Amino acid sequence: ALLRAANALLQQRRYHAALAVIKGFRNGAVYGAKIRAPHALVMTFLFKSGSLREKLKSVAQATYAHSRNLAYFVFTYKGLLAAQSRLQGKRIPFHSFLAACVGGWLVFGDNNPINSQIIMYLLSRILFGLARLAVHKGYIPQPRQDPFPLLAALVWGTVLWLFEYHRETLQPSLQSSMTYLYEDSEVWHDLSDFLIYNKRTDSK
C-alpha cells in the first residue's frame, strides 16, 4: 500500500518540479561518485605516497566531496529554475544562466582541488561549445579546413612551455603527470628502473 501511494504521488504533475529537484539531488550524488571514485583511485595509487589506509581515505574523501558538491549544485540549480519559472509563468534562457551562476557561486566557489578540476573540465568544453555556437550563428565563418590539428599543436605547445618554464601555474595533478612523463623518463640506474619500475627504491 505504501509503495502504491508513493508511485501515485510520483505520477502527479503538480509535484513534478519539486520531485525533479529531489531526483536531481540523487542523480548528482550518484554521478559524482561514479566519476570521481575511479579517477581518484587511479591518481592516488599512481602518484601519492602513504599507507594503503591513507590512500583509501584520500579516495573516499575526494569521492564524497565530488558527489556532495554535484548533488548540492543540481538541487540548487533545479530549485532556482523552478522558482523563476513559477514566478514568471514561463521559462526563459536567462533563468538557466542565473540559476547556474548562483549554484556555481554557492557550491563551487571554494577554491580547492576538487572544484578546480571540475571548473577546468567545464571551461575546456565551454570554449569548444562557444566556438561551435559562433560558427552556427554566423559570427565566425565556417573553417575551410578542420582547425583541430592547429588547436592540438597550440594546446600541447603551450602546456609543455608552461611545464618547463612556469610549472607553478599548472594544477598539481597535471604537474605530477607531466613529471612522470617528461622528467622521470630522464633518470634510470639499471634495467629494473628503465623498463619495470619508474624509480628505483632505496633498497636497491
Automatic annotation (TrEMBL):
Organism domain of life: Eukaryota
Q: Which GO terms describe its cellular component?
A: peroxisomal membrane
Q: Name one Pfam family in it.
A: Tim17
Name it.
PXMP4 protein
Q: Which organism is it from?
A: Irena cyanogastra
The taxonomy runs: Eukaryota, Metazoa, Chordata, Craniata, Vertebrata
Gene of this entry: Pxmp4
